[in-house]
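Section 3.1: Structural characterization of target chains.
Under the original work plan, the team committed to producing a structural model for every single-chain target entering the pipeline before any wet-lab resources were allocated. The record below documents one such target. The sequence was received from the expression subgroup and is listed exactly as submitted; it comprises 312 residues.
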Amino acid sequence: MNDIVERFGRAVVTATSLALIVAALLAIAPSGVDARSVFASNPNAPVFDEETFAVRSISEDASSGDAIGKPVRATDADNDTLTYLLATGQDASHFSIDAASGQLRTGVNWNEQAGSSFRVDVEVHDGKDQDGNSDTTIDATILVMIDVVAGTGQQQDPFGGGFGPAPVAPKFADGFRAAREVFDNAASGDPVGEPVVAAHEDNLAITYSLSGTDAGSFSVDEDTGQIRVSEGVSLVVDRSFTLNLTATDSAGFGAIIIVNIVVVETPYHDYDANQNRVIERDEVFAAISDYFDGEILKEEVIALISLYFSQT
């Protein structure tokens, strides 16, 4: 605190003066600062468009070399040429990827049945380090879930009754699988991303429920489809959970969607000194001091300050 006062003269540092400091920083800052992206170790490294998790599907009728959904793309702030790779392990041997486009493809011996599911890690690098030197170190990785679906003219019954015409039932906006993220410092009752919502063509009322191995770690608002963190769940960065979310309409018909939840790091974790999930004024002062000491970027301190004011 004294260090902050010395840097800005003998003025009393209050919420008002903090606002003036913010205004001065914002005056020279770029617009559209993203609080999550600026806390990365290299702000100019490529970032996957779907962040930490993606879902793709492919027909059981596919042939070797067929494209699997849309490319898994990343964006680079410097417009560098990006190179995509498949990490070894998991189910990588079943697939290939176009190094220039990020397009996943079926492998050379593709012969999979509907209902199968695979996990692969797609990696990307921009060919240089933060100083502009040539470097092929991986800059970002995204987990991709690949589902094999029924062939042409068939639709898989989500209740396991075989294949045939879909029943009159609710339909999820996310299809048969959804992905959500939760911060590693989330507390009991906190929401997990956006609600996983279904709709009925006749506008019947819908009730949501959870099942599956990890269902005890979460709850769902039965009227809205909002998934929430349960008491006592261990949220460790990169840990994943799989839930079965059922939407049942007032006529008794239902649909099931698989929801994959990945734990991600809170962007301001290093400055939440007391780990109370709230950025406090002293913690903002610490970030400002670090900025003037050259330890963090201008965009980082602005993102933290923005989070502070968004809480008040």
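The chain has three domains: 2-35+267-310, 42-154, 168-266.
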